[in-house]
Structures are given as structure tokens and as C-alpha cells.
Amino acid sequence: MATPDLIASIAVNTFCDHLPFYRQEQRLARISVSISRNDMANWIIQAAHAVRPVFERLLARSRESEIINMDRTSLTVMGEPGKANASKSYMWLMRAGPPDAPMITYHDRPSHRADEARSLLGGFSGFLQTDGLEVYPAAIAGSSITHVGCWAHARRKFHEALKAVPASETAKAGMAWIGQLYAVERDLRKRLTEGAIDRKTFLEERLSQVEPILDDFKRWLDTETLSVLPSSLAGKAISYTLGQWEKLIRYRAHADLTPDNNLAENAIRPFVLGRKNWLICGSPEGATASCVIYSLIETAKANGLNVFDFLVSLFHYAPFAKSDKDWDSLLPFKKSFELLPGHTINVPTGLY
Questions:
Q1: Eight-class DSSP state of 251
Q2: Residue 341, helix vs strand vs coil
Q3: Measured CA angle at 141 (ends 135, 143), to 5 deg
Q4: What pTM value is reported for the model?
Q5: pLDDT confidence tier of residue 212, bands split at 50, 70 and 90
Q6: 146 forms bridges with which residues in the sheet?
Q7: What angle do CA 51, 56, 57 make, to 5 degrees?
Q8: More reliable by pLDDT, 112 or 186
């Protein structure tokens, strides 16, 4: 019989501190506590199933938001139906919501084809910001979604060219142009955060300041592409930037859009760190459970909640949640979850 505190502790060790179950088993054995890795895995799977309505609400609200940042990374899952054992699958990430209530959801899928992204975005009609992977245009074809590109990926191409040829004036110039865009963003974003300007002024000033930079940069790219060897790294950086140009400049349309997709890349990093330690998911059920718990933990962290306290309360109250209102109050948002001490869910007395 695992208590909410014990399950929360195992979840934090696994998904925040990246400790595989076998290492937790060994640590507990040193203090003469016997809990097998199989028990831990089964508890996490059962707990994830029990709180899945919270995860489903996060996904539904993400699809209703104005902006989604999306990314994906590989994942090895044992026993996937219709696939060779331990073959490659994928973990897709969606980060959505306004800055004061971000939502992060993870989704295990057998591939990174366009239909996977399309199914995850079902019903979404806002701005989708991604890297330059070709599946995204195919995934949103025919929809009302506006595709926004990532300047960090364009900058990375020029940076790679500069590392290969430190004397490359083309690579230096490309990075300098992009650096100007980021300088404008940093200054205006700081003033917006501090309350020195409102969102309308932020949009107007960003547009007026980056427009001449973008115009000059585009002319430089068009000229430079005629004289730089296309197969060189600098040539590939120019080609990538020109190919993504219309998507790259769309971040100007919304105050919550930034020049890059770093919000998604930063959000997927905890999973990547964990994967380096536990390497594989032992079953499809385990992969799905990991998605649910990762989603709840990373959303709680992004909203400034103490992750352990949040999970203890969530596992405590979830068995007594009956209505939509009950489940909504368990979402990991600070403005709602801080009310839990006076929660209205009817918890039978004497059980805890």
C-alpha cells in the first residue's frame, strides 16, 4: 500500500532527479528498506492512470491557447505493438498557454511523421512555433494554423559555419544580423516585463525596430547567396535562412511570440536528461505513464509550484474528484492549486 508521499517521492526522484528505479531500489536497500523496481514502476503506471484526467485537461486547454511551441526527441520503448523490440519511438512536446499559466505536455508516439503532429494539434487554430522539420508544414496543411519559425536554428547554422571556418566573414555577418534581432527583443521584453511599456506598445516598437533590420538582412542574404558556395556550411546557412524566411519573420505578430522555439527546447530537456540515465521505457504503458507524470511535473515547475507538495496533494485528492470542477481545481496552476487546503472535494474523514 503506497501512500501519496511515497509515490510522489519516487516520481520526483525519477522525473526530476533522473534516478532510474534500480538506483532508487539500491539506495533504499542501504537503509534496509525493501521496495523493488517493479513495484515502483507499477505504482507510477497506476498513479499516472489515476490522474490522467488532469493531463487530458492540460492537453485540451493547450489546444485552445493562442500559441503552441512544439518539439520532439527519440525514445526507445520495449514491446511496442507492430514494431521490433526496443525500436525507436518518439516523444513529442507541446508548450502552450500565456506566460502566467504555461502548460507543458509530453506525448509518446511510434514515429515523427506528419500525422502524429496533426493528431496532437487537433482543433488548434493559433500560432505554431517549431524548428524547420519538414513534417510540420505537412501536418498543418489546409488548417488555419499560422506556422512560425525559429531564429535560434538559423543562427545555429551560421555558428556551425563559423566553427568550421573561423575566418568566414559570411558566417560572422549572418550571426551579427541575427544578434541585432535578439538585442531588440531583449530590450523590449525587459521593458514589457518591468511594466515600462504595455503589450500594444511592445508590438508597435518591435515592428518598427526590427523591420529595417530584416529588410537589410534579406537583401544581404539575396546578394550573398550568389557568391557563396552552396555546398559550404555558410552557403547552407544562407539557404536554410532564405528557405525559412516567411516563417522566421512571423514572430512579430504576437506579443507572446519570441524569435525562437527555445521554450519548447528547454521544456524537453528534462526528458532528455532522464533518458540518458534510464535509457529505455520497459513497456508502452510505462512510456505513456512517463508522459503523464512528466507533463504534470514540468507544468507545476513552470508555474512556480513545489513539485513534491503538488504531487502529494494531487495523489491525495484525485481519488475523491468526481466533477469537472474537482478535476479543474487539481490543475498545476498556482492561482488554482494554492486554494487546495480549503478544497471543496468531499474527502471522507478518517482516511488520511
A1: G
A2: helix
A3: 130
A4: 0.90
A5: very high
A6: 127
A7: 100
A8: 186
Strand partners, 95: 69, 104
Q: Mean pLDDT for the chain?
A: 90
Whether 29 has a pLDDT exceeding 60, the answer reads yes
Q: Rounded to an integer, what distance in angstroms lies between the CA atom of residue 333 and that of residue 302?
A: 9
pLDDT tens sequence across 261-316: 999 999 998 888 877 776 667 788 888 999 999 999 999 999 999 999 999 999 99
Round to whole Å and give the CA distance between 170 and 232.
11
The beta-carbon contacts of 221-227 under 8 Å, at least 24 apart in sequence, are 221/245, 224/170, 224/173
Q: Is the pLDDT of residue 138 over 90?
A: yes
Nearest alpha carbon to residue 255 among 60, 30, 58, 67: 67
pLDDT at 25: 95
Closest CA to 285 of 92, 41, 118: 41
pLDDT-derived band at 336, boundaries 50, 70, 90: low
Q: Which residues contact 325 (CB under 8 A, 6 or more apart)?
A: 344
Sign (positive/negative) of CA torsion 11, 326, 300, 274? positive
Q: Where are the alpha helices (DSSP H) in 144-168?
A: 151-164
Q: Tell me the one-letter amino acid at 155.
A: R
Residues in the chain: 352
| Residue 90 DSSP SS3 | strand
Determine contact, residues 57/327, Cβ cutoff 8 Å.
Answer: yes
Burial 14-43 (b: 16+ CB within 10 A, else e): bbbebbbbebbbeeeeeeeeebeeeebbeb
Q: Cβ distance 67 to 271 under 8 Å? A: no
Alpha helix stretches (DSSP H) within the chain: 4-15, 21-30, 37-50, 52-64, 114-120, 135-140, 151-164, 169-193, 199-224, 233-243, 245-248, 262-278, 284-302, 307-317, 324-328, 334-337
Report the Cα 114 to chain-centroid distance in Å: 18
% of the chain residues with pLDDT over 70: 92
Cell reading at 83? 514494431
| 237-274 residue pLDDT tens | 999 999 999 999 999 999 999 999 999 999 998 888 87
